[in-house]
Design brief:
By secondary structure, the chain is mainly α. Among the domains are: 98 residues, no CATH class; 101 residues, Tetratricopeptide repeat domain (Serine Threonine Protein Phosphatase 5, Tetratricopeptide repeat, Alpha Horseshoe), CATH 1.25.40.10. Helix content is 68%, strand content 0%. The longest helix is centred in the C-terminal third of the chain and has 15 residues.
Length: 484
């Protein structure tokens, strides 16, 4: 495991940098620190990095930077606040001579949700090497990092420390272990931790149930949900919404139905979040009648609710109904987002509505200032390909701002085969091979297209290329569900 890259900034550099704030900073964000009643109190009142840097500079000049309590408040703002700066927090942390438990916890918590969660694990390693003892608040943050990184080895190593420090019955720590193992698809380890805890709260029950549902173990999820109810534990709205979201996959419809029945029996107020979770669950499982029933009964809906219903209709072959619902969304003055247009363009693909698809794609930028992303371009390429507009689809890919991937080129290649357009197919194959030189599948597709048009010399040449590159077609296989 590589050592974390820490940046040590000389004291003189910090003073020079912090005592001369950028001219672009608003003077209104300054505040007086000439006679502070408490440095930590002022740190808690900071609302911007400009203010915090002034306070930091004052602490350095007045030699009070080694007051760990006040410094920890600075660190907390930098690392955890929406207005903070994680890179500045790293510099501040590494300039601290003897970081305490709170400081380490703060940085581990921040890094757990950062781009590379395993940096939190490296901080924990440093923490132990420096002789700083972890506490019950350290491990939930550390386990969150392991969950975000989907590192089962990390979970197991942290689990050993949890047992070593006697925290294996601490509920928030246990919940972190259950969640970490579930995210890493180690359900047996998660269940063992779950079963060994003598008393469980609602969050731990939900983590284990969601873990089963998210890993396609719907039977176990249903049994555990019934067991929770048998223990007299009633889930609240937040937990029910979480479980319903986990049920939004094939095979979990019966769990969702059981939850809705429970909600009706208890007279639970659905609200926007819970109602949307129900719509999403039913729509994803193809129960469009029930999804629409819940959708229509909701007095309040947000754009996520509309997206769930439109997407459900689109992917299950009700393209016209999806587009009609989108028109109703606009009439209700609901502002669509990028996900909405993925659903709408998918509906156009399934329905073969080429003109409508072009209109909606243009409307994204012109009417709603939404920049199309790869998924939107993918839908349009699919739609144009189905409509036989291969040249337009190819030009769309070449003109888009995003770098095309193998998938989007592959969509066009599939359309070329259906239309029998070898000229475009040859250019597409070149693009795919430039991205993935070992992609033998495109050779096979092109070879079959040559064979279908009787171009046997080209078939022979292409097979020589495949043989020279030690490429061969992967034998096909089928899976059969025995209904068990």
């Amino acid at each position: 495991m590589p050592r974390p890259q820490f940046i040590f900034l000389p004291k003189q550099s910090i003073i020079k940098h912090l005592t001369h704030p950028s001219s672009s900073s608003s003077s209104s964000s300054s505040f007086s620190i000439n006679s502070p009643p408490s440095l930590s109190h002022i740190a808690d009142k900071c609302t911007s990095m400009h203010q915090l840097k002034q306070l930091h500079a004052h602490m350095i000049i007045s030699a009070r930077i080694h007051d760990n309590y006040a410094a920890s408040r600075l660190l907390s703002f930098c690392a955890l606040s929406d207005s903070g700066d994680i890179n500045y927090a790293v510099k501040l942390f590494n300039y601290t001579q003897q970081p305490n438990n709170f400081m380490y916890n703060t940085m581990i918590r921040a890094q757990a949700s950062a781009q590379n969660p395993l940096n939190a694990v490296l901080l924990f390693v440093q923490m132990r090497r420096m002789g700083v003892l972890p506490g019950k608040h350290t491990f939930p943050f550390l386990l969150k990092a392991c969950s975000n990184a989907k590192s089962v080895d990390g979970c197991k190593q942290v689990h050993c420390y949890v047992i070593k420090f006697g925290l294996d019955f601490e509920l928030y720590v246990v919940n972190g272990l259950v969640r970490g193992y579930c995210v890493s698809r180690c359900l047996s380890d998660a269940r063992q931790v779950f079963d060994e805890i003598p008393e469980r709260n609602l969050i731990i029950w939900a983590s284990m149930i969601c873990g089963y549902a998210q890993n396609n173990s719907s039977d176990e999820a249903l049994l555990l949900f019934n067991r929770m109810l048998d223990h007299g534990i009633e889930p609240n709205g937040v937990i029910l919404a979480s479980v319903l979201s986990a049920c939004a996959q094939d095979g979990c419809l019966m769990i969702g139905e059981r939850i809705e029945k429970f909600m009706r029996e208890k007279g639970t107020d659905w609200g926007v979040i819970l109602g949307t979770a129900l719509v999403h669950m039913y729509a994803k499982n193809g129960a469009l009648g029930k999804a629409r029933e819940v959708f229509d009964s909701m007095q309040q809906k947000n754009v996520v609710t509309w997206n769930a219903m439109i997407h459900g209709l689109a992917v299950h072959g009700h393209a016209e109904s999806a587009l009609t619902l989108f028109t109703k969304l606009e009439m209700e003055d609901i502002v669509p987002n990028g996900i909405t247009f993925v659903a709408v363009l998918s509906a156009c693909c399934h329905g073969g509505f080429l003109a409508e698809g072009r209109k909606f794609f243009s409307s994204m930028k012109q009417d709603y200032n939404i920049e199309p992303k790869l998924e939107h371009y993918g839908c349009m390429v699919d739609l144009l390909g189905r409509g036989g507009e291969l040249i337009e689809a190819e030009q769309l890919i070449r003109d888009m701002e995003w770098k095309a991937d193998v998938m989007i080129w592959g969509t066009l290649l599939s359309a070329c085969r259906k239309c029998g357009n070898i000229e475009v197919a040859e250019r597409v194959v070149e693009e795919i091979l430039a991205l993935d030189p070992q992609n033998h599948g495109v050779h096979v597709v092109l070879s079959n297209m040559y064979a279908e048009t009787g171009r046997w010399d080209d078939v022979l040449n292409l097979r020589k290329v495949m043989k020279k590159g030690h490429l061969k077609k992967v034998p096909g296989w089928s899976s059969v569900n025995d209904g068990g």
